[in-house]
Each structure stands twice: as C-alpha cells, then as structure tokens.
Amino acid sequence: MKRNRWLWAVVLISSSLLIGLMAFSNWESPVRVWIALWFLVICPGMALQRLMGLRLGIQGWSLAIAFSLALDTLVGIILLYSGNWSWELGLGILVSLTIVSAILDLLVNQPKDPMAVFSFTSVPARTNKRRTKTISE
Known about the structure:
Number of helices: 4
Number of strands: 0
Oligomer: single chain
Number of domains: 1
Largest sheet: none
C-alpha cells in the first residue's frame, strides 16, 4: 500500500512537471498532445481522489476522469468570469493543484484500509421448504 502511494505521487508530480515544461517552453512534438491529454483528463482528478482517501481500483479511474474534467471546467469558468482568462494561468493552477494534492496525500496519515464507498450485506436466501398446513381437530 505504501509503495502504491509513492508510485502514484511520483507519476502525478512528474506528469505535472512534464506538462508544465512542455507548455511553457513551446516544445513541439506529436507526443505533446498525448501528454497534455493524459494530464488534463487523469492527473488532477486522480490526485484529488487519492487525497480524499478513495482507493477504488478500476472504478476509481472513471471517478478520476469525472473529477479532472470538472476541475478543468471549474478553473476555466472562474478565470473567464473573473476577466483573467489565459491558458497559461489555467494550466498553472491545475499543475499546482495536482502537485500540492499529491504531496499532501503522502504527508497526511491515511487509514490502513481504503474508504468503503459501497457496502453490501448478505441477505439469507429463501428456503425451499414447502409450507404445509396442519389441520387441528
């Protein structure tokens, strides 16, 4: 579990630094699109999800995508309505949010077990015994 936390922190921080380096240095490459897509669709949401303690496995990927797209949209709307729209500022906010969330995930004491989102209880099955009526005389 500890190794997984460090691995995700390294992936998120290195992805953030890489997209920042590529965007602000005007690095021209066909790989740039895929790295930007990876960062914008996965990284901010995964960092936030892991900070909240939700370690969900494969289900967490869809939640991370939803969180990321919501954060991307929220940052864009806030910048647009405040009159400070620039892609550089928006990307800087998302990169710093991802890095801070990944570092806080490592520093904050997380519970040993992942937080349960759904819990199921077992319900006893119905028995196949025939009900017989007894006639008392």
